[in-house]
Every structure is written in C-alpha cells, then in structure tokens.
Amino acid sequence: MPQSATIKSISRAFRVMKSMQGQGIEWGEGYRRAAGAALKDVLEGRMAAGIDGHLAAMAARDEADRRNGSYRRWLMTELGEIELAVPRTRRWSALEVVRAYARRAAHIDRMILACFVLGLSTRKVAIALVPILGRRISAGTVSQVAKRLDAAVAAFHRRPLKDIYPVLMLDGVVLARKTGAGAIRRPVLVALGLRADGRKEIIDYRLAVAESAAQWELFLTDLYRRGLEGARLEMICTDGGAGLLAALPMVYPGIPVQRCWAHKIRNVLDKVKKADHADVKAGLHDVMNAATVIKARAAARRFAERWCETDPKAVDCLRNDLDELLTCFQYKTHEKRKTVRTTNAIERRFREVRRRTRPMGVFQDRTSMDRILFAVFIHENSNQGVPTLFSLTQTFFDVTLGARRLDVERLRAPRLKNRKGSIAPGLILGWR
After folding, report:
1. H or E segment at 99?
2. What is the pLDDT of residues 7-23, one digit of tens each?
C-alpha cells in the first residue's frame, strides 16, 4: 500500500526528493509540477507566518504597522521557476524568508557558475540546465551570475602579492581558443611560487599574444608592482624560452636562473635518432641526478665524449646551458633539487585544465579561458593549503573540481550516477 507524507518544511521536501531519487523513482514533468506547487505552498506559508510574527512583535512594542497587500516574485529552483505572492506590511516585507529578495536559490547560481567553469558559453548555459530546471533561464539571469565570477577573476589579477617565495617558477603553456575566424593558439604565461615550507602556489597568470620578451616583461613588471619584488628569491626556474630569458634581467636582475631539466631533455632528444633515445636519456639523468655539482660536471663530460661525434648538436644543446642547469645544486639534498629543477608543477596544473576542457576541444573564447584557468588554479592552491580570499566561489569550485568532478557532457545529461544510484544533477551542487 503506498505511503504518503505531509511535507511541512523545505529541508524535509528535499530529503524526500533525495530518498525517492535514491530508489530510482523518475521525476517526470508531473512530479516536477506537483513538487513545485508543494514548495510554493511551504514558502508562502512561511511568509504568512513571518508577517503574523512581525505584526505581533510590533503590537507587543506598541508600534504601528499593518498589512499592505502582496507583490509577485519569481524564485528559480531545480524544480523550475516558482511564482510567489510575497506579503508585506507598511514597514516589512516577508521576502526575507526567501533570503532577502533573492530571485534564485543559491544552488542555481552555483550550477550556472559551474557551467562557465566547464567551458560553456553564456548562450549554452541556459540549454545545458534545461534538464535540471525544466525550462530555460533568461540570458539576463545568466549574465548577472557570470559577472560575479568575472569580478572574482579580475580581483585575483589585481590583488596585492606577498614577497615570501624562495623559488619562482615561470612557464608559458599554449592553449587553443575559438575566434570568429577559427581556432587560434595562444600562450598563457604562468608564475608559480614555491613557499619555504614546500607548498606550491599559482601566483598569477596572463593570457598573452606571444611568449615574447615584451609580453613577459609586462607580466613580470605587474607582479613586481603588486609586491613580488624578489627580496627572498634564491632562484628562478624557467622553461628556457628566449623571450622570458631576455625579460628576466629587466625585472629581477641578479637572481640565479635554473633551466628546466624536463624541457632540456626533450630538446636534446629531438636532436638524436629515436634508436638512441634510451641511451641519451640515461646519460642526461646521470648529470641531473649526480650527488654533487662536481660529479654532475664529470657526468656531463662523459656524455659529451660519448655523443660528440655522432650527435654534436645534442652535445651543444646540453653544453650551452649546463651552468644554468646546475644552479639547483646550491641545495644540498637531492629532494630539494628535484623540487626546483623543473617547471613540471605548472605542467601538472595544465593537465587538469586540459582534462577539464577535453570535451570542448578548444576554449569558447578568451573569457571562458580566463574563468576555467582561474577555477582550476584556485582549486589547486586550495589543495596545497594556500588560503584564498575568494570565498564567493570556493565552495562551488570544491564541488565542481573536487572528488565528484563533473564534465560538460555529464552536466548536459538529464541524469547523473553515483555509487548509491541515480541522483539529479542539481542536488550535487546545492541544498546541503
């Protein structure tokens, strides 16, 4: 015999919904309309009670107030838009019951923000959320929520910086984005700071037109003016690009440079036959992993003697930058040298960016690229225990980019799966 339950609170309504979804009960349009009507009754009942309580409190203080009709407001929920009749008095509105004139439930905002972080354009956000909300949301609503995320991104790029890093890692990573004339590839200039306690922090990034000296100088100068003056810098690890190496003395003169071993090994291997890759790589590892700088130079000499006749270009590629490749030997321990001798920490963070955007192939536009980079980098900083000032978006980043990661295709689907069964996408992002 079917059971019935009287729903008298919002929290109870959503507990029942989650229970039904966990049992595999489908939410068709009939259920959606009925549930929306029930939620409307609960909210309007709460507001009516709020008006009664307010008038009683005013009477107890012997203050004058009286009812003043009602007005209409729309609340966006995962059940669709609900039109509410909001009662008011001459001095107070019951809309405070639904969060001080909020027109959308907070979790809907988080879903809209998640769509942006997953790379959808403003137009496509409304389409992607139709299976969840039951109808399209307006372009104006989407744009207003987008401004919150874009404001956080802009604040990140303007925030004052602390001059606390003993090691600075700089790299340029190329990403593709769409334009009106087709896809183009543009570099992202990235600065990652290694803290004294070993934690890694993305300090900032810039979407550039090229990895030229001028572009790097603009980026580094901005970091310097915001507080990263390099007073505690012991070295700067770079990818070896000519533009960056030319710009460094202009902003951070006198700071020892460590050339990235990962980039150097790839460059050397490009100059030898594929059949020799294993032997050449082993020789380079002997240099890189030597116990002391003296033994490293001895290993480099053996490498040169072994390959100078058959592959002189590979030998020159190592020899020309050997001094800067061995800068890391100023640290005594192998573990410390291993941490600072490559820019792989930046590469790893871009692997997450590419994983996030794989369904799209390329970024929708420059703005979507900036949003996704910001979201991933803030999340990675949080994983390192580096505090962030951007609490506005942190909760939703943790959900969107955390253990239950969503991607664009799953967000578009009308249903998602977890280990316990079927759940609605909206419940992942809200209503705790």
Report:
1. none
2. 555 556 556 655 655 66
